[in-house]
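Sample A.
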Amino acid sequence: MSKILMVVSGADSLELADGSAHPTGFWAEEVAASHEVLRAAGHEVVVATPGGTRPVPDPVSLDARGGVDPDDARRFRAYLDGMDAELAAPLDLADVSADDWDAVYVPGGHAPMTDLAVSPVLGALLTRADRRGAVVAALCHGVAALASAVGDDGTFAFAGRELTAFSDEEEAQGGLGDRSPWLVESRLRELGAEVVTGPAWSSTVVEDGNLVTGQNPQSSADTARRVVGALAGR
């Protein structure tokens, strides 16, 4: 059994390009489906957030506004209800050591763009985890969290690495479009990552050594399965 730290955003709003506040949170499928796959494989999964804040799901990730089938929404809600005790009392990210975990897994929703992408605490944790060879996994807008891993000298820890993320095309088609304060795919390219995207809304997972990334909510279960495979190979 491996120990997996699931880092979830504690934000419930995102400042848009026009300065207005947009309600957000984690994407329900990305937490529920990922957690289910990882736990079913026998791994210990522990949730952490900045400040130990209780994370909240993005409301649209549980209804038709987010393109979520009603049956799927009920299933995701039921799973989240079943892990409510974990979500109610997450670890404080500042108290976590990268050395204690075999993998770090960051699901998305737009919320990580608010806190995780600019967290020096998370940046240091991801950099340390990567250097020691732990599996570093991120999904959809959760890949924005990798942008936190920039050293004092401006060096991006994942420069030159192949990864995927919620694509600019997907943001234009079904995300926030030009209201988004920045674009995850574009930002990571600017930092020096080699971003590889599949067709919009396809399940697309990219592995580069110990780095595992998924493109969108449709990639949730497959991203978790690839993490399970990566851990099994150790």
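Sample B, a different protein:
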Amino acid sequence: MPSARPPSAGRRTEESRVPKVVGRAAALAAVVALGVAGCGKSDSGDGGPAATATASGSGYACTTPPKAPDEAQSQALPDKASAAGKTFVATVTTNCGDLVLELDGAKAPQTVASFQQLAKSYWKDSPCHRLTTSGIFVLQCGDPTGTGSGSPGYGFGIENAPASGQYPRGTLAMARTNDPNSNGGQFFIVYKDTELPTDGGGYSIFGKVVSGMPILDFVASRGTPSGDGPPAQPLSILKISVTEKKA
């Protein structure tokens, strides 16, 4: 069974990376820009009016997402105190419908504080630019430009990385470069249980998907031409709202 190298999120001048299986180049591969179509759930209207493709029996139809921004907005790193000890719920509106995420500010306060800030406007019309389908099973998002090199202009260190290297289905984690302090705006969602290397510190887990996994399954089922690149059935983030989860 092939091992894989883990995903990573780019700093401002570097491409964000995703794991590569053994037998490919030792350096993590550059990320490719996303295409122009997205997907939406056909029976809810969440994906917009103009369906462009369907998957037989899936219940989903694809629509055309907005044009991605030309550049990422530079911001300042927020204070982690705003998220420390709290749990949040993020509703990610995509052109496939809604993904609902639970964010763990107790275990990853800096990461969650950053996610809260970037959710306000940074990820508007942001394509998910990379899907991996061999060895590791993740969808990588968070670069508004869809090129894999966009960043909010700041970086921070690793939080809550599993010593085991195990990333279960539904895990929400940060992507980064080889620099452990290069966490920024890019993140990945695991759609099938995945083991990632722990060298370099691993990858910060900061939450999980609590609703919407069928959307990711649908995108993953369509694959990618290379096995590691833009999804054949693209997905774009339209907006994100974040609220604190009360006990």
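Observation for Sample B: The helical segments are 109-119, 213-222.
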